[in-house]
Write a structure and sequence with these properties.
single chain, mainly alpha, about 0% strand
Length: about 40
Amino acid sequence: MRVVSRLLGHKDISILIEVYGHTLQERVIEEYQEVRNILK
């Protein structure tokens, strides 16, 4: 995340987390559900 933050021009990752944190959490939940469905 630090690399992505730097590439986007942020001085630290807190801005990246603040702006995109909800999206990251939603994606984690989606991927978790996909794995659960595969393992059923």
